[in-house]
Design a protein that fits this description.
With 235 residues, the protein is an alpha+beta fold. The chain has 2 domains: 168 residues, tt1808, chain A, CATH 3.90.1570.20; 35 residues. It has 4 helices and 14 strands. The N and C termini lie far apart (115 Å). The relative contact order is 0.10.
Length: 235
């Protein structure tokens, strides 16, 4: 007599790509999240082993989908720069983020400074920055932490002569600057502020408009001089 064996199907573990919640609490938080993610993607676009993402689930324990965190923006060095629906550390040679930035708001402040901070330290996130665009929940408005022996210590804050607050990210090789309360990334090697594609296009358009206005003024001045029988080239 052959004993029958009941086959019990194994339900695969699901790792959701989203939780149905909005990307950011409001327009201000969303605009800065978009700026940081896009500006950093442009900055690292020629480095195929640097991955920049925002508002993406990071699963850090295989088999335990509840072990998840979703930074506003994060950067990982040493993994392929490609699109992902979520980031599973065991599929990425156990690489965890090197840099994290949270855009702090009323509903995220306690998690950003409590639970998430602990998770990032556990994951070995080398730098953890927080920015409060409204200045209502975080003082100072821009803060940075760097990991030393499993514990976070403050990143030094510098105040420039014009009042701009600057914090250096050694991981990124960039400065996070607070200019009149607005967060911008600054490249000390080039002396330029990082822009998104849209900001670059607007800057080019503004420069072209300024050039045209200058040219038109010069043409009007030359015409006026000729009316006065003055050769503009003689001046």
């Amino acid at each position: 007599m052959t004993a029958s064996v009941e086959y019990i199907p194994v339900t695969p573990i699901e790792y959701p790509d989203e939780d149905g919640k909005p990307m950011a609490e409001g327009d201000i938080q969303c605009s800065y999240l978009t700026y940081v993610r896009n500006a950093l993607r442009i900055y690292f676009q020629n480095r195929p082993n640097v991955y920049v993402a925002g508002n993406l689930f990071i699963y850090y324990e295989k088999g335990y989908p509840e072990s998840v965190v979703a930074p506003d923006v994060f950067v990982v060095f040493g993994v392929e720069n490609r699109d992902r629906r979520s980031y599973k550390t065991w599929e990425e040679q156990n690489k965890t983020p090197d840099f994290v930035l949270e855009i702090t708001s009323k509903t995220t402040r306690s998690k950003d400074q409590g639970a998430k901070k602990g998770i990032y330290a556990f994951l070995g996130v080398r730098e953890y920055f927080q920015y409060d665009p409204t200045g209502d929940y975080l003082n100072p408005q821009l803060q940075g932490l760097h990991l030393v022996d499993g514990n976070y210590f403050p990143v030094a804050t510098n105040t420039l002569p014009d009042g701009t607050v600057s914090l250096l990210s050694q991981v990124l090789g960039l400065e996070l600057r607070l200019e009149a309360g607005k967060l911008r990334f600054y490249n000390p090697a080039t002396g330029q502020t990082l822009l998104t594609h849209e900001e670059e296009a607007s800057a080019r358009q503004a420069a072209e408009q300024a050039r045209q206005q200058t040219e038109q003024k010069a043409q009007r001045l030359a015409a006026k001089l000729r009316e006065l029988n003055i050769d503009p080239d003689s001046l």
